[in-house]
Specification:
With about 120 residues, the chain is an alpha+beta fold. The chain is built from two helices and five strands; from the N terminus they run H-E-E-E-H-E-E. The two termini are about 30 Å apart.
Amino acid sequence: MRRLASHLALALAACGGASAPPAAEPYSASAGDTNVYTFVSVEQADTACYVTVHDAGGAEKTYPGEFDLCTHDPIPAVGARVRIEWGTATILAASCEGNPDCPDSDEVQIVQKLVAAE
């Protein structure tokens, strides 16, 4: 978590504010959730690396993830089946609108790792 927080601080300082991230949904397990998804993409933003996947029903979901996911080599191939390993992190609150001096923060669930599903 500390690594993510330091990455957030550096990214915000370097960029001078937040860009508009993709619309992210909070993760909530539902009945029958297998945690297996079809990989679509990753997108670097100021507050996280956003991971887009399709769930078992084909619905597109976008979740915030650790910055390392956007630069991990190799990034999963589009269409690859992946499992998501979840964690929590404290990030700059959306209400701060990208202001790195804002004292507000939110604790959110994030994607820590994408693992090939069998």
